[in-house]
Amino acid sequence: MASREAGTAGTLAADLCGWIDRLFPDAERGERLKRALCERFGDDVRAVDTGVCGEMETVARDFSRHVELEYVAAGTLVPDTDPPGWPPPDPREVQLRAGSVGAVARRPDGVGVLALDGLDGVHIAAPYLEAAFALLRGARGVVLDLRRNGGGDPGTMTLVLDWLLGGEPTHVCDVIYRDRTRQWWTTGRLAELALPRETPVSVLVSERTFSSGEGLAYHLQCRRRARIVGQRTPGAADHITPVNVSGHVRALLPEARVRDAVTGANWEGTGVVPDLPCEPADTLTVATDALSAG
């Protein structure tokens, strides 16, 4: 049972609105989110618990798919006065999962398959990815499997784009914060590891492809470098940061939005729409057949 020391739903909504004022990258969208929270929870005197947090997430996802609230019953969190940023990744954990390279294979028909299940920090993940790129050199076509990719470091996303786009440095996107904009570019420095532009590429996506994992598929689709195969993705494009809102609630809140350099838009709310929609069981077969279709 929730403790009254956790505060009320109305108090939590007010605290979240304060952080939205400070962080939310799109002022108009942030104002609409604040209004929705205040209208639903402003006078709510229920004690905060897991259920209340879940209700607030549901309301917030009409405005950003990335808002998450975690209830900590023990009340041991230290509330933040400023966003603390993300803690550095544990190198050993990234090494144990090989930079989230789930599998890399060369099939007898000459097709290469790379399952990339996350986007770990590029400074640790790069050697594993580059080893996978080397194993796929000379493939007649490549299937990039992002069906379990929950996102992560945009630097690692850009490294994969470097491999698939090749050529000169390419402006991928802008990440727009309240007070600054960060540009992301490929480097054009992968040399012989870069996949030739004539090599066809299929990208597998699903309802579990999320955040920067969706971004990788979106940026390739916009540049007509790959056919996207599978199911529509959830549509989480905002960049987020962790914040301890109270002693009982840890939140992941948007602090930046993405603007693709080609479309001027992103996949927030809409998801990445497959070029070749299909049932989950058929995804790999459809993607492989698409490589031969040209």
What does this structure look like?
It contains eight helices and eleven strands. By secondary structure, the chain is an alpha/beta fold. A hairpin with a 4-residue loop joins β2 (101-106) and β3. The protein is elongated. The N and C termini lie far apart (59 Å). The mean pLDDT is 95.
Name the CATH superfamily classification of the largest domain: 2-enoyl-CoA Hydratase, Chain A, domain 1
Mean pLDDT: 95
| Shape verdict | elongated
Number of domains: 2
Structural class: alpha/beta
Give me the side-by-side strand order of the main sheet.
Answer: 2-3-4-7-8-11
Topology as H/E string?
HHHEHEEHEHEEEHEEEEH
Considering DSSP H and I runs of 4 or more, what fraction of the residues is helical?
25-40%
Distance between the termini: 59 Å
Instruction: Work out the number of β strands.
Output: 11
What is the CATH topology descriptor of the largest domain? 2-enoyl-CoA Hydratase, Chain A, domain 1
Number of helices: 8
Q: What would the keywords be for this entry?
A:
2-enoyl-CoA Hydratase, Chain A, domain 1; alpha/beta; 2 domains; 294 residues; elongated; 8 helices; 5-stranded antiparallel sheet
Short description:
The protein has 294 residues and is α/β, with parallel strands linked by helices. The protein is 32% helix and 21% strand.
What is the secondary structure topology, with strand pairs?
Blueprint: H1 9-23, H2 27-41, H3 50-60, E1 68-71, H4 91-96, E2 101-106, E3 111-116, H5 122-135, E4 141-145, H6 154-165, E5 171-177, E6 181-185, E7 201-205, H7 212-222, E8 227-230, E9 239-244, E10 249-260, E11 276-277, H8 283-293
Parallel strand pairs: 3-4, 4-7, 7-8, 8-11
Antiparallel strand pairs: 1-10, 2-3, 5-6, 5-10, 9-10
Helix pairs in contact: 1-2, 5-6, 6-7
